[in-house]
Amino acid sequence: MRVLYFHQHFTTPDGSSGTRSYEFARALVRRGHHVTMVCGFSAGGGLNLPVDSRRGWNRGDVDGIDVIALPLAYSNRDGIAKRSWLFLRFALRGVMIALRHDYDLLFATSTPLTAALPGIAMKLFGRGKPFVFEVRDLWPELPRALGMKNPILLGGMSLLEWLAYRCADACIGLAPGIVDGIKKRAPRDRIVEMIPNGCDFELFTPAKRGPLRLPGIKPGDFVAGFTGAHGVANGLDAVLDVAAELKRRDRANIKFVLFGDGKCKDGLVVRAKREELSNVLFFPPVSKTEIAVLTPSFDCGLQILADVPAFYYGTSPNKFFDYLSSGLPVVTNYPGWLADLISGKGCGRAVPPRSPALLADALCYLADNRGVVAQCGVNARRLAEAEFGRPALAERFVAMLNRVYADGRSM
């Protein structure tokens, strides 16, 4: 089977973002399928591909995956207008590839929602190939919840979502709320399956703790780590609220280390300096490989998001599964399916949103009870192995695509 795979933010382990598409594409290749990955080309993707000046893109082999990287670099720091134009440009170039390329099945994953356009166009223009659409966030619910009010953009998202669910032969949702949202809008006969993000046991392993050799960290400090985007959706002001609370309590031994970048980072740094929050340390984004080396030296992983109800059951963050793989307790500040797992499996602490005092209480408790930290870490890794192993999830992904392809051939 020849799979044409669209993921605008495709990243390898040498990049600084999630590697789900890399690992799923590799699983397809291992099963004898050919994968052409179409993505954007940016410094954070970990790609180093030769230039095809005739076609205006970079193209090459990445661990058996044929990668076409369009010269469209994305940044979380960009405004909504610039990002929307970038998404549309990627989608339009993707449409041309979908209409001209030779393949057996088209797979597209959001975000952004415009990633569905190549599959929609392929269906509407009569090529008749099977189309599988993966949904990582519900649109327009999430942008609306985060404050978007432009009726034209919201209406366009609603229309695009409606078309995507009707043109796709099957859909994948990454979280329970996403699957429920798809089922409410998609035709009743549509195949819908939940395949969450997962744990990379080759890259992230519980290792013997060593000292975290970073500026501002002292021996004996309790280190709460965060790895990921510093955008509006991440709500990292909540971390600074907790840091201020801990400063008032004179708990200088609890430190926050934040690796990443994004639209809100500069403001966070300014606020931390203004409030003299020396317990919050900011670092640039690093590759997945480097994160895997760092995380075993954290004492817990922070799963922080803005207080948006759409997130409660509608998100599947890579960092959460990286923490589990590394045998780290996880501390979260919002309810939902991940909080239920953390509490039910005894692998960390979950507190209500907008509760800096309660989040500070949770961190103080862990800092003062290292035996609890160790047991939560064991429980975290046990949960990772029992339910979220990336190899098993990749096999489910491959099986689903095989099923959709076989059903398409039998029609």
Q: Provide the succession of SSEs.
A: EHEEEEHEHEHHEHEEHEHEHEHHEHEHHH
Q: Beta-strand level of the residues, as a percent range?
A: 15-25%
State the helical fraction: 40-55%
Continuous helix count: 15
Number of strand elements: 15
Regions with pLDDT < 50 over 5+ consecutive residues?
A: none
- Largest sheet, order of strands side by side? 3-4-5-2-1-6-7-8-9
Largest sheet report: 9 strands, mixed
- Average pLDDT score: 92
In the residues, how many domains can be counted?
A: 2
CA-atom Rg in angstroms: 21 Å
Annotated CATH homologous superfamily of the largest domain: Glycogen Phosphorylase B
Look up the CATH topology of the largest domain.
Rossmann fold
Q: How would you describe the shape?
A: globular
Question: Which keywords apply here?
Answer:
411 residues; Rossmann fold; alpha/beta; globular; 2 domains
Task: Tell me what the structure shows.
This protein has 411 residues and is α/β, with parallel strands linked by helices. The protein has two domains: 2-198 and 389-410, Rossmann fold, CATH 3.40.50; 222-387, Rossmann fold (3-Layer(aba) Sandwich), CATH 3.40.50. The chain is built from 15 helices and 15 strands. It has helices spanning 20-30, 80-100, 117-124, 141-145, 151-167, 176-185, 237-248, 265-274, 288-294, 309-312, 318-325, 337-344, 356-368, 370-387, 390-410, and strands at 2-6, 34-40, 51-52, 57-62, 65-70, 105-109, 131-135, 170-173, 191-194, 222-227, 254-259, 280-283, 300-303, 330-332, 348-350. The strands form two sheets. It has a nine-stranded mixed beta sheet, sandwiched between helices. Strands 12-11-10-13-14-15 form a six-stranded parallel beta sheet. It is globular and about 65 Å long. The chain starts with a strand and ends with a helix. The mean pLDDT is 92.
